[in-house]
Amino acid sequence: MLNLPISDIMNDHPIKVLSDVTIRNVAHLMLRYRINGILVVDRNDAEKLCGVFTTTDLMNVMGGVLAKRAKKMQALNELGEKPIGAYLSKDFVTMQKDDSAAKAVGLMHKKNVLTIPVYDGDKLVGVIGRHDVINIAFA
């Protein structure tokens, strides 16, 4: 199963947001759709990826804010209103749709990433996450 191309197991309708969407709204999307990462795209080109924001990024940002502030609920509320663009991972791993699921597992492990944007050449065509590869590995 791990020799399948990731195009067979990826989500070909990934959730994308603009960089000015608030952290609160992105967190709600991740919870609602039970995903570990959101693709952040350019306002003028929905196929141009600016970065990826993951649950790991969210926990790091929350931890940093909570460690510095005495009024923790106020700090979280203020953080929730900030735009996602300032906090997303801009150094992200990508894959091509014909790459294997085994390669995805290797990259996720080696680079410690949860979410990988998938391209067909230079066109963004989907996203693959840890749940996708675990699901096919043990299906």
Describe it.
- The termini are close together.
- This protein has helices at 23-33, 55-68, 72-80, 101-111, 130-137; strands at 16-18, 37-42, 45-54, 95-96, 115-120, 123-129.
- It is an alpha/beta fold.
- The chain has one domain (6-137): CBS-domain.
- Helix 2 packs across helix 3.
- The mean pLDDT is 91.
- Strand 4, helix 4 and strand 5 (115-120) form a beta-alpha-beta unit.
- The strands form 2 sheets. Strands 1-2-3 form a 3-stranded mixed beta sheet. It has a 3-stranded mixed beta sheet with strand order 4-5-6.
- Helices cover 38% and strands 24% of the residues.
- It is globular and about 50 Å long.
Labels describing this entry:
about 140 residues, alpha/beta, CBS-domain, three-stranded mixed β-sheet, globular
Précis, in short:
This protein is of the alpha/beta class and 139 residues long.
Reconstruct the topology from this structure.
Elements: E1 16-18, H1 23-33, E2 37-42, E3 45-54, H2 55-68, H3 72-80, E4 95-96, H4 101-111, E5 115-120, E6 123-129, H5 130-137
CATH superfamily (homologous) name = CBS-domain
The helix/strand order is: EHEEHHEHEEH
Give start-end ranges of low-pLDDT stretches. Answer: none
Largest sheet: 3 strands, mixed
Strand order, largest beta sheet: 1-2-3
CATH fold-level assignment: CBS-domain
Overall radius of gyration? 16 Å
Overall outline: globular
Based on secondary structure, the structural category is alpha/beta
Average of pLDDT: 91
Number of helices: 5
